[in-house]
User: Fold these one by one.
Assistant:
Number 1:
Amino acid sequence: MLTTNTSTTPIEQDQLNDQSLGWLGIVRLGLVQTCIGSVVVMTTSTLNRIMVVELSLPALIPGLLVAIHYLVQVIRPKMGLISDQGKTKTPWIIGGMTILGIGGATASLGTALMGSHLTLGLIVSFLAFLMIGVGVSTSGTSLLALLAKSVNDQRRAAAATIVWLMMIFGFAMTSVMIGKFIDPYTPLKVITIACVVSMVAILITITALYRIEEQASQYAKNIVEAPKQNIPFKQVLLDMWKDNDIRHFTKFIFISMLAFSSQDLILEPFAGIVFQYSVGQTTSLSGLQHSGVLIGMLLVALCGSSFLRKYFGSLNSWIVYGCLASAITMAGLSVGGLVGPGWPLNLNVFLLGVSNGAFSIAAIGSMMRLAVADGLGKEGVRIGLWGGAQAIAFGLGGLLGAVASDAARWFITDTAIAYSSVFAIEALLFVVSARFATRIQR
């Protein structure tokens, strides 16, 4: 819980909550997340496809570039500490968004160059994806830190849902718009579209953040703030790691996101090989899973409100039960691999999506709460630590999921049993992550 400067009566607490960021302010911060998502999806999805399909390059090249942008995000805790030591977080969000936008435009230039000068294109793309990682780390970490210190406890679950849904909207809207204007493909057209997307994202970010931190400060000034200290970064990390809740939550984030991301690259091949689904059917299956994720997020946003929380449990309860439900549905996929086409795969995948959406959005709400549990001044570095853990898990998850399935098929002649073995391991990871979540006390 937030720590106020003095003890408050219920009426005073209501007045304090009224000073927190309202729904319009939350949506404005969500617009920034939409902009981040728009640039990221352009570089990790559209440019990925162009490299593999139009340029006939090995899929390893875009895979390594995307991995670089995840790897760079280990700087998130450092960027969070720097923003904590400053007076405001808005300049860091805008600066990070600017770096991200420049990186997105540069990545399109590098992709275009690969068609005629492969080595030069690879160098430019490498630098671009470094910038993308730095931009996401700087803007994303400071944005979540600002949201954490500006939203009261009753609105956290809903705020997390709104911001993440707006990021997903950014993914979808940008993909649709790029798809509408990019055909027929030309390198110049790709560069133009990337520059427009980046410029619009930067302008919207600047507009959405205008004077919003002044409003948020009216609420934040009532919360105890740690004195600004120039403590070495290594010492800050060591001090954080001594905190049991922070340590357990970090382990929870890493393991749950590892299990969450490692299913992405193998679910559709699994459906195609074991259940004989067509390309269209596997694409629809993926859409069904994402629909489940959306429903899970909305469910937690509704049940995590102050009115319904006493009936449906705390955010931490939703994390634990969501992870356990994810483990059960993942185990269902493992059983389905053995049963074959008779297994209700569509229902299984839909319920997996609901479970994933529930625990992930509850985790984001709890993350914002724990970030300011002892007052302000540490929220940026804490969120940076958890964001870095998530980024590393996502980078490793996609790679390890694919490698594990290939290795299992190498050693196990039956493909269905091989996939079932991998899903069983992922189910176990969700159980372990739920165990860490139960150890979080505050």
Note: Confidence is low (pLDDT under 50) at residues 1-18.
Number 2:
Amino acid sequence: MIDRVILIVLDSVGVGELPDADTYGDSGSNTLGNIARKSKDFKLKNMEALGIGNISEALGLKKSMNPIGSYGRAEEISPGKDTTTGHWEIAGIVLEQPFPTFPNGFPNELVESIEKAIGKKTIGNEVASGTEIIARLGDKHVDTGYPIVYTSADSVFQIAAHEEVISIEKLYEICEKVRKLLKGEYAVGRVIARPFIGVSGNYKRTPNRKDYSLKPIKKTMLEVISENGLDVVAVGKIEDIFSGVGITESVHTKNNMEGIDETVKYIQTDRKGLIFTNLVDFDMLYGHRNDVRGYAQALMEFDSRLPEIISAMKDSDVLIITADHGCDPTTDSTDHSREYVPVIVYGKHIKMGADIGIRKGLSDIGATVLDLLNLPIEIAGTSFRKKIMVKEVHLK
């Protein structure tokens, strides 16, 4: 009997290019594999024990002869390679159309309507790196009080402001107004508040980022679980990604280690249902900044905490470790990459060494979560429960 699933998303830890990666400009991307090859003394002994090295030889990780978990990978079938698309697909929503992107900045008429709504002029309106644009436009922002607007290759509308010029509360209020305006052809996946601090020549972003996503367009596994009276606990930016829909309790975190701390605390409670965690540092701090060394270190830090996570688990728990897309720091691009994601499953009732192969759709993860909890699969996806569960014996 499975009472609870702990689902941890290692944000952007892809495991190799998808068949259509070239159409996204991502040929050769392999976030985990390329990091492993380019990092000296890189070891993931606990992940390797679970079977991550068995997923593909292209990862260059140690293959376990006797993995203690089940393993495989999943192919994203929705168009796109952004956070919202990946998480929504995990939860059972397969998109037919990608969220809109704005490679030349946002249309003037849209920006003008936003400026009217928030009562302020804006600066920027371009595709840019978040750290680069605040270094370049930070002084102008401080002088004028105008928020910095920018986007990326992803479907995002980002708003940066110095915390001493525009308070965090005011920045959040601005983002909420913008979110309401971005509809139809302008309905980006996320509006993101990007507060920063510091002085000229030394501006730096703070952990007070906040995402404002679209509400899910269909029912997700979160709603199925909560509607059946079970808990859906969101750790990290999960609540933001799903706009709170289907979530019964949440906690926001400032970094990976805090995210793991909070996850362990929840595992130690008697809540039943789902603990859904996103660990964002891999993507935000290292992938987008092409920081191979930092990314490698963050992966090893997560790996070092796996025994703590596992030791907190109850016999009726199942742990699933996956990702939402790639963000290969070894390539010239600083954007997300179109990649397979790992699927690692562990628990007392989970087979050791079962290979689930390549799942056609991240939604198979959500379908399996529901199946493990003996709930109806009212979402897209095909469960792989039978492949991973130890044979269940029912006494008469």
Note: The mean pLDDT is 96.
Number 3:
Amino acid sequence: MPTSAPTTEVNETAAAELPLLEVSGLKKYFPIRSGILQRHTGDVKAVDGLDFTLRRGETLSLVGESGCGKTTAGRSILRLLEPTAGKALYRPDEHTEVDWFELPKSELRPYRRDLQIIFQDPYASLNPRITVGNSIGEALKVHGVSSGGKDRRDRVAELLVKVGLRPDVANRFPHEFSGGQRQRVGIARALALNPKLIVCDEAVSALDVSIQAQVINLLKDLQAEFGLSYLFIAHDLSVVRYISDRVAVMYLGRIVEIGPVDQVFDNPQHPYTQALLSAIPRANPKERRERIPLTGDVPSPINPPSGCHFHTRCHIAEKGLCDIQYPEPRNVHEAGQYAACHFAKPIG
């Protein structure tokens, strides 16, 4: 353990109840510079204060419209993008608690193997000039997990079989695979270092529906086998309901509703969540749900609206309240459902 890492000893009994990852106040701003002197004139507030926990063996999904900050949040949590502000307590085992955002870059490597990502585009995320076997084995080499040679080749072959590919495809290049097969390679690469948490960044959105089902079932099987935790970033709500334990709905860089997936889907409390769910197609034409249209465009994250950011598009917004005061999240169900809306009905 690096001596300068900000860690805390954790009681074993208490650790069993503590989440694997606890994020509070996460912000990621991209500076806007203009003029010859490139003065700082503003910020794109891509992520503007996220608070959530991720338990061991759990799948938490981040959903919302394109541009709401889902991918930026996922990459900031892994520090592929450096967060502007916030705190992330990571607990790799029952004895240790690490402030992940405060670790110097020189001390990240011991924990990097625990936190992996599956990218949205399975072709762009693979180097077209090297074989998939070398792509998977590269992480093993960098982290000194295998001794090299036959040991590394055996580990790559084991991973390929684990994700439903033949071991002899290790010598092929990415262009020789279909989209679904390339995504399986991406999953094998994420599994190579035996991680505890995987960020799935739109991991199935680029795939055909039939291939989506195969990859999602593969992710669920791997989670059951290895006890993985997933931060699943998606916009397809039918996929989210199938794979998730909990769901967090994002709007303009903030979480507006979070809770157990069935509770949020069956009893949404935030108007934005209600509008998103009303747009889900129904397989049975007799099952009708009143459509709640979203008027106008998503506001600019450079200058978000005052008060509740959603009030400019909300069908129940009240002038003098929603446009002035940002609502604090309210506990609306004993199962742990929270909604940031002035009109959400709290329990009790």
Note: The chain has ten helices and 13 strands.
Number 4:
Amino acid sequence: MNIAVVGATGMVGTQILKVLAENSFPITNLLLVASEKSIGNEIEFGGSKHAIISMEEAISRKPHIAIFSAGGDISRAFAQQFADAGTTVIDNSSAFRMDADKKLIVPEINANELTASDKIIANPNCSTIQMVLALSEIQKNYGIKRLVISTYQSITGTGVKAVRQMENERNNEKGEMAYPYPIDKNCLPHGGDFREDGYTTEEQKLVDETHKIFNDDTIGITATVVRVPVVGGHSEALNVECNKPFDISTVRKMLADTPGVVLQDNPDMNIYPMPKYSEGKNDVFVGRVRRDFSIENGLNMWVVADNLRKGAATNAVQIAEYLVKNKLV
């Protein structure tokens, strides 16, 4: 299996390589692509050093799978070129997520929709992935009427520039700013770009992507995205209004039995998910599961995951594993 990783030196690209190694993904040839200034530099993988090559060379070598994590502009410019060469592209950017002819995949939920003809496959937004995985069985069994989302998102979702900003602030040093305000000891209700309706692009992604993954545009969804000075992962407070009545103990068991979800819900022992402890892990952690008594069929939960792992790298590698296992590449 010949695999290309586009954006191999970035925060998500680095995690993709770690997950490929941890999962013993069957790689015959590994092609690493990054910016032009990185060409020729070497990255160690699987006990060997691999030189970074150009995009053009990677396309000419026709890998079976190319995992993209280099931003939407790069994906729009080169993903189709890989696809035209016979490569199946798994794209981490927002470039293709809402294209009607591209599938938006969280493997535990809808990988069975994939076919060999899907040459560009979209990875959802990190905050969407963890949320829909936590909600998937609830949607399947009770239906979701309305969803109110408040996120507490790690600065790693913005990238290395944001991490450096926080480190500089903590060290009382000046440097390049990823945000218009300080992030350390602060919260910014500003994820993505502001739209004319007052919502941000990150908030709208949660709406649009959830509708597409669940194949249900009737769900009422509203979101507020907040960046917090955390590096371990994204956290979300979810308020769910179901279409049908539910038993709270059944919901907890349902969550505990969901593949990829770990239930951490014992308030008497102070057990609940936290981003500090999700870092480096591939699971989605759910806790604070409780009934919302203010509405009929209301449910509250707290969802945490490493946004660089299940929110990006792990989900992409799981898609690749599904393609290989089912002989779709």
Note: DSSP finds ten helices and 14 strands in the chain.
